[in-house]
């Protein structure tokens, strides 16, 4: 950095195994990024041993970002860090992408952060555990891409009316994306078992405008062979189902045809079924 000749740095990535003895050095690099009007800043600071719980995480120094540097920042990635907003935080007015992995942050700070990123187009949060709901009242009017993966959250409420892609991985909990008029792609990879009845009654409410849907989940076919629901996928053209079924459910597999009743305009349907064998009770032998 001392040998750097230019005034500006377009992109800066800091990536190595974190040691809290290096905090001052990392802060110096962040300060350098601020002074160089960096547009893309990435900090990836995993603990040296990923199997050992890490009490100490690098705390991203938001206080080093003045109004001018915040104006320049377009892309921010924070991995294996913590984040705390200062009082009177005015947001990142020109931030386009925000990528969070194993970020330690409170519900309020994350909500305030998102509410003050008015030009955000791409947002990903993976393994960020709020243990609470995430509600962003201010519309995310430019958000096009949203990924939520393996986060301990109880509920998500957003207003992302221009969202085009939604990726969700993890346990099933309530999600409200607002009035999304033209959702192109959605992937739901759920490791919470769900009934077919729940899928047909809830998913069309959450993703009514989706055009291309991939659903991976474990299903329980506890319903009649054919079910009618008032909610439908009004724009769905491609439906890809990748389902795990218990071997006791294979006799009711035709009930999967109920997906057609909520997808009246589907043009391409693919169903992949894995039959899971029930454990053997040897006491009955």
UniProtKB/TrEMBL annotation:
Gene3D superfamilies named among the record's database cross-references: Ribonuclease Inhibitor (3.80.10.10)
Domain At1g61320/AtMIF1 LRR: 1-274
Pfam families in the record: LRR_At1g61320_AtMIF1 (PF23622)
Domain of life: Eukaryota
InterPro entries referenced in this protein's UniProt entry, alphabetically: At1g61320/At1g61330-like, LRR_At1g61320_AtMIF1, LRR_dom_sf
Family matches, as PANTHER family: F-BOX DOMAIN-CONTAINING PROTEIN, OS02G0105600 PROTEIN
Entry protein name: At1g61320/AtMIF1 LRR domain-containing protein
């Amino acid at each position: 950095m001392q040998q750097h000749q230019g005034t500006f740095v377009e992109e800066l990535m800091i990536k190595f195994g974190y040691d809290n003895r290096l905090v001052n050095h990392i802060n110096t690099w962040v300060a350098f990024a601020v002074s160089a009007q960096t547009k893309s800043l990435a900090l990836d600071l995993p603990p040296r041993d990923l199997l050992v719980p890490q009490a100490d995480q690098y705390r991203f120094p938001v206080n080093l970002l003045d109004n001018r540097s915040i104006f320049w920042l377009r892309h921010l990635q924070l991995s294996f860090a913590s984040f705390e907003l200062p009082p009177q935080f005015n947001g990142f007015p020109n931030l386009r992408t925000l990528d969070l992995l194993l970020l330690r942050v409170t519900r309020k700070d994350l909500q305030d952060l998102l509410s003050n990123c008015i030009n955000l187009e791409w947002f990903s949060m993976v393994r960020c555990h709020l243990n609470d709901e995430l509600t962003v009242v201010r519309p995310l009017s430019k958000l096009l891409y949203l990924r939520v993966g393996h986060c301990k959250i109880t509920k998500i409420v957003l207003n992302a009316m221009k969202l085009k892609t939604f990726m969700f991985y993890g346990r099933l909990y309530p999600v409200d994306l607002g009035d999304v008029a033209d959702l192109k792609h959605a992937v739901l990879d759920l490791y919470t078992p769900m009934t077919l009845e729940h899928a047909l009654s809830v998913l069309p409410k959450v993703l009514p405008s989706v055009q291309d849907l991939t659903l991976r989940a474990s299903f329980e076919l506890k319903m009649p062979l054919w079910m009618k629901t008032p909610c439908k996928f009004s724009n769905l053209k491609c439906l890809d189902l990748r389902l795990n079924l218990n071997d006791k459910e294979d006799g009711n597999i035709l009930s999967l045809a109920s997906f057609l009743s909520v997808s009246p305009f589907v043009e391409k349907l693919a169903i992949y079924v894995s039959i899971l064998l029930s454990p053997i009770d040897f006491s009955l032998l």
